[in-house]
């Protein structure tokens, strides 16, 4: 009897988590702020959010500390998210336009690594690394609870996270601000 009750509880929990994930696919509207302000927790040279080490979709590793001291854009996406698929061409164009001045990093979550690899291949986003956030810690550290989302990190460590779909013009505007700040 306890096993059956436990199995039902697990099934209900998984169903709720799946519904929350699907509902999070861009449901927050255009560019809703999730977390803004200084990224430095202790005055150190590496902002708190950039203190991570993660596997990448292509089998490598990425260290957030390698992004410190230069502007960066982190794009949070899920491989099954249709809004992320729709935003991918804008991200690719922005990376091509600003990639010599701003480091772009994808942060993939809510899927399997093979699904993430397929997403990167299908969308032509292989020009920059994509971290695998299989446990949600990286998303959480940037205040991300839905995808797509973008975190804009200035060279001096200020982090601004925006959740929801951005237009290409908004993406370019925020990225340009990183270059000129």
UniProtKB/TrEMBL annotation:
Keyword terms, alphabetized: Signal
Sequence ranges assigned to domain Thioredoxin in this UniProt record: 28-180
Pfam families: AhpC-TSA
UniProt-listed PROSITE patterns: PROKAR_LIPOPROTEIN, THIOREDOXIN_2
GO molecular function ontology, one term from the record: oxidoreductase activity
Annotated signal peptide: 1-23
Coiled-coil intervals, chain numbering: none
Protein name: Thioredoxin domain-containing protein
Organism: Pseudofrankia asymbiotica
């Amino acid at each position: 009897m306890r096993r059956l009750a436990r199995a039902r509880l697990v099934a209900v929990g998984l169903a709720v988590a799946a519904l929350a994930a699907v509902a999070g696919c861009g449901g927050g509207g255009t560019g809703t702020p999730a977390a803004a302000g200084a990224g430095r927790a202790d005055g150190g040279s590496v902002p708190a959010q950039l203190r991570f080490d993660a596997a990448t979709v292509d089998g490598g590793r990425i260290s957030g500390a390698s992004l410190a001291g230069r502007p960066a854009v982190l794009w949070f996406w899920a491989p099954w998210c249709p809004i992320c698929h729709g935003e991918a061409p804008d991200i690719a164009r922005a990376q091509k336009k600003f990639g010599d001045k701003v480091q772009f990093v994808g942060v993939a979550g809510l899927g399997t690594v093979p699904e993430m690899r397929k997403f990167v291949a299908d969308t032509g986003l292989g020009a920059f690394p994509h971290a695998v956030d299989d446990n949600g810690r990286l998303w959480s550290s940037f205040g991300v609870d839905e995808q797509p989302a973008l975190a804009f990190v200035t060279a001096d460590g200020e982090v601004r996270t925006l959740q929801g779909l951005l237009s290409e013009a908004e993406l370019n505007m925020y990225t340009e601000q990183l270059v000129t700040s």
